[in-house]
Specification:
two-stranded antiparallel ribbon, single chain, flat, mainly alpha
């Protein structure tokens, strides 16, 4: 399939697909006219790349992990090693820390929202105090 079709099927820009290829994340054959020709498996590969980027992995880490993953279901391939488990465990711990930080930030934001809601112009007590300003 051509790059435009792959972009459409994966909702990833052609520019991103070219970047993935440059980084060694994605491969395409070339037609006699020089156009990229991606195999059907490229759709699954791009989906995995997007998932790994969304999880916060950098392209260098993804390049290391992709050979250890099957494209169809994302499970480990025969080339998966204990190294892969260690790398993914480290990444999961990093994500867990980010989740904890986000939950703390949400709690603080909730407190601010609650406090601000009590001082809202729509709040009866606030309207009274606004009218009493000298």
């Amino acid at each position: 399939m051509r790059i435009g079709e792959l972009a459409q099927r994966t909702a990833v820009s052609e520019r991103s697909l070219r970047y993935y290829e440059k980084q060694g994340l994605l491969y395409a054959d070339r037609t006699p006219g020089g156009h990229r020709d991606y195999p059907e498996a490229a759709v699954d590969r791009v989906v995995h790349i997007q998932e790994l980027f969304a999880a916060g992995l950098c392209s260098a880490k993804i390049v290391q992990l992709l050979p250890c993953m099957r494209d169809k279901d994302g499970g480990p391939s025969e080339t998966a090693t204990p190294w892969l488990v260690d790398e993914l465990t480290e990444e999961r711990a990093r994500i867990d820390r980010q989740v904890a930080d986000l939950l703390r930030a949400r709690e603080v934001l909730d407190e601010v929202i609650t406090a601000a809601s009590k001082r809202s112009p729509h709040h009866p007590d606030q309207r009274k105090s606004d009218t009493l300003i000298p």
